[in-house]
Design a protein that fits this description.
about 425 residues; alpha/beta; nine-stranded mixed β-sheet; 14 helices; about 20% strand; binds S-adenosylmethionine
């Protein structure tokens, strides 16, 4: 099977380089304008137990000391970046990881106060937290509500016991249900579930049951990710029994089945892998051709810049990507020495920016203007996709056929100037 990037950024992360460092970042942050609206991303790189499928940047910790110390460093980084940034208005915040649910309630409230004292967080800001249902508690949920959190994304993955054993992640439907009830009780009503297809021992039958149980809990959104098996990058994935992994055809069948089941259950399909209730802001944004794509997936986030904080986090500026060091020690030393912990990144040329706009629109399945002179060879290479109905090119606009979402990555790749045919080294395209 062809292997193609997921395009959460363009140029993609393998093209980031060390030439972009703290100094470059300082200048770029300073160029942000006073009226620019920000989105903030906080990376919490800790979990209590390792899921063997995990592709995220995280490590297992016991006790609270390392987490408290990290939140202290993160607070210092916030002070540093807010001082350098020309912009301060915040409309979106996202806590990801890892598992932000490892943070103790008091530490979470304290941290949010630090954010609010360094940035101008709008009253109607969208504030989301990724939740591991196994490490959250009523006290933590109360702390989220008190701090203005209004969105929760729960890692559900799969409810089948055999699958759960094979991925080292045990969590019952009952546990997830209790978390959903607690969230709704405190007024956190915007709830997303992450599910994964392509895990060991999954079959059409198990996927049907998992989705059925998930739908009964009535989340507003469901993200259905294809399992990315990359043991050369994530050693612990060697613990996954590869002989039990569904092959490419079954993966495709599972996704198609889930897609039909979810759309029949009243969800609207968004981009490659999101499903939302028809009144959800993403569904409305899709109707208005306004959805966006960033490192967290599909979003309505129309911020001018996304500032990342914490180990390995990535910032998206109007003309650059900046990535913090993924090396914990390096991150700590940089902050302690009062330096931005940026380790690599890329400054975008005008051509990169044009291609980024086109590629992101394709990945979002929305129409996009493509100049026929400037991109003549790319448009020519789209002929097979035009013939098979994946995409239309009319009046200078590329119009994606939403039903052919399997093909979006391949269409986007035609506009990727960094991609050399035959040099793909990414996870499977479906
Ligand atoms: C940071 S985790 C979510 C919060 C929390 N850590 C949890 O797992 O409950 C982000 C999501 O990435 C997805 N994910 C992690 N590793 C993956 C992989 N190898 N392939 C596909 N999806 C993956 C999972 O669905 C997971 O819920
Ligand atoms: S999937 Fe979530 S809980 Fe599991 S190890 Fe990865 S980040 Fe931690």
């Amino acid at each position: 099977m062809e292997q193609i990037p997921r395009y959460t950024s363009y140029p993609t992360a393998p093209h980031f380089h060390k030439g972009v460092d703290g100094k470059t970042s300082q200048n770029l942050l300073g160029k942000l304008g006073k009226q620019d609206v920000l989105s903030l991303y906080f990376h919490i790189p800790f979990c209590r137990q390792l899921c063997w499928f995990c592709g995220c940047h995280t490590k297992i910790v016991n006790g609270n000391k390392p987490i408290e110390q990290y939140m202290e460093l993160l607070s210092q980084e916030i002070a540093m970046q807010s001082k350098l940034s020309g912009a301060s208005i915040v409309k979106y915040m996202h806590f990801g990881g890892g598992s932000p649910t490892v943070i103790e309630p008091n530490d979470f409230v304290k941290f949010m106060n630090v954010v609010r004292s360094n940035f101008d967080v709008l009253d109607d800001a969208e504030i989301a937290v990724e939740i591991d249902p196994r490490t959250v508690s009523k006290e933590k949920i109360l702390a989220y509500a008190k701090s203005g959190v209004n969105r929760a994304s729960l890692g559900v993955q799969d409810f089948n016991e055999q699958v759960q054993r094979a991925i080292n992640r045990h969590q019952s439907i009952e546990l997830v249900k209790n978390v959903v009830v607690s969230l709704r009780d405190t007024g956190i009503n915007e709830i997303n579930f992450d599910l994964i297809y392509g895990l060991p021992f999954q079959s059409l039958e198990t996927i049907k049951k998992t989705i059925d149980s998930a739908v009964k809990l009535d989340p507003n959104r469901i993200s259905l990710f294809g399992y990315a098996h990359v043991p050369w990058m994530k050693k612990h994935q060697d613990l996954i029994p590869t002989e039990a992994l569904p092959g490419p055809e079954l993966r495709m069948e599972m996704f198609d089945f889930a897609h039909d089941y979810l759309t029949k259950s009243g969800y609207v399909s968004i981009g490659l892998d999101h499903f939302v209730k028809p009144d959800d802001s993403l569904a409305i944004a899709q109707k208005n051709q306004e959805i966006q794509r960033n490192f967290q997936g599909y979003t309505i986030d129309k911020a001018d810049a996304l500032l990342g904080f914490g180990v390995s986090s990535i910032s998206t500026l109007p003309t650059a990507y900046l990535q913090n060091s993924s090396d914990y020690r390096h991150y700590v030393t940089s902050i302690e020495e009062g330096n931005l912990p940026v380790a690599r990144g890329i400054e975008l040329s005008d051509d990169d920016i044009k291609r980024r706009d086109i590629i992101m629109s394709i990945m979002c399945g929305i129409r996009t203007k493509v100049c026929s002179n400037e991109f003549a060879s790319e448009l020519k290479s789209l002929s097979p996709f035009i013939e098979n109905g994946t995409v239309e090119y009319r009046d200078s606009f590329l119009i994606m056929n939403k039903r052919e979402h399997h093909q979006f990555r391949k269409v986007a790749a035609k506009f990727d100037a960094y991609l050399t045919e035959g040099q793909f080294s990414f996870s499977q395209a479906v």
